[in-house]
Predict the structure.
Amino acid sequence: MTLPKQVTIKEVGPRDGLQNEQKWLATEDKVAWINQLSACGFNTIEISSFVSPKWIPALKDAEEVARLIERKNGVTYSALVPNQRGLERALHVGVDEIAVFMSASETHNQKNIAKSISATLPVLEEVVRGAKQENKKTRAYVSTVFGCPYEGEISPENVLSIGDALFEMDIDEISLGDTIGVANPKQVEDFLSLWQRNFPKEKCALHFHDTRGLALANIHAALTLGYTTFDASTAGLGGCPYAPGASGNVATEDLLYMLHHMGIETGLDEQAILQASAFVSKKLARKQLSHNLQVYMTDRETYS
Amino acid sequence: MTLPKQVTIKEVGPRDGLQNEQKWLATEDKVAWINQLSACGFNTIEISSFVSPKWIPALKDAEEVARLIERKNGVTYSALVPNQRGLERALHVGVDEIAVFMSASETHNQKNIAKSISATLPVLEEVVRGAKQENKKTRAYVSTVFGCPYEGEISPENVLSIGDALFEMDIDEISLGDTIGVANPKQVEDFLSLWQRNFPKEKCALHFHDTRGLALANIHAALTLGYTTFDASTAGLGGCPYAPGASGNVATEDLLYMLHHMGIETGLDEQAILQASAFVSKKLARKQLSHNLQVYMTDRETYS
């Protein structure tokens, strides 16, 4: 099996990891955590979401976070943006990358964005055009690609149509999401084999949740097909709203362990990430730690 | 990628899952749990260990467990046996399969069995011969195949030599163990490619621990090479003594989810296994649940 020599991990913890957290993480702790992450070697950190504070109160301090963090040269600070109003807010505080989002499932899109997929695309197009005018990078999240809590399996053809529409907007990258963590390695391989006959792999990121413990197996399947960009959250934050208490995004430190031990470079500092993971876990008083954080914590009495 | 159509899961929870548990599981609860497992469709359940109660107090009731469980037709009830004395005890209560054990690491073997590898083999040979005389199935666990807490990486050639010695004894099956959960999918693929040039795949089981979250990725790697027998513990019991609190054996229900969703048959009843997993988790007051048990428990108020 041929594996890539180098992989890019995009840290989405401060946005996707936090957006469903019940416990409020203080702005100063968010800022401290992001500053720690900046020192870990990431080239992209998604720092917050410029949606309405009513939708996601956990991220209502997006502007302050964007203003207070120390910007490190070479790091792209990204943020989620739902519409033109969100774009203006994000541009106002100098975010480097604008991430739009939609669902591959009509029902999930309707529940999440209150629009049909066809009505969502023009909104995204306007945001992407506006971002490009300001020379920002652009990314689109497509959620529920591998399964939807309402519709079950999603037709791969529907996802390809969405891919067509997004690349028509000249989007820089699409992140394909297993939002509720139901994908398996065979499905990932089947789907991506189809995807790469239509679109360049280099413009595709994979976003796996570990709800059923399959995130690393799914990433391994994608690696063997030559995909090299993966989203992850330090500490495995980002629990699924459909399964409270369950595992969230694949933990950055767990993904790192796998990649580094397979001889794949990431440019990331494992120890620094474990420290950032321990920091945010402690602030959130998390009991369910990521695998590698559990191992790391074993000998550390300071953690409580 | 070609995947097998059918896979055998051997349930090792009542032995490997419990042996490091600090909390005592009452004999009647062990028996109730094993009886539930018998109804799940397993063809093999490892019920206990006939080592000295001083070594493993959690399993000191091996004889009572073996006597009290209901034996279901078609199910092989297996037990761990360290030596001739253990064999006599196991035979006395009518165990169907005798499992011997040793380590691929000289240091780990010395610490665990207080003998060198070369001094261990004749002890195992005597047990295997005695078991075969009584028409029992035989299995050998080789631990720390993919890494040792004392020696680090283990030379694959050393493992092959141990394989030679064990198959010389005409052992029915060797279970290759990632005892401390450090293996990665590339390593698994590299090692098994070598292994299968020397020994029949059909006589090899894989035994993965999920310490770093890689058990399912490793099993997927083995599946793609055509391996079809895997050890697992309901609820993911079996924490590592070198990382207290960390994940244990791959959880039977997590493995099942992956296999069934990839269209691979196991003959096992997912719901019955989740119920058995919930039962034992509750008895042990476990806080760190398996991935699929977390999802299963989400809507169940009865669990506490």
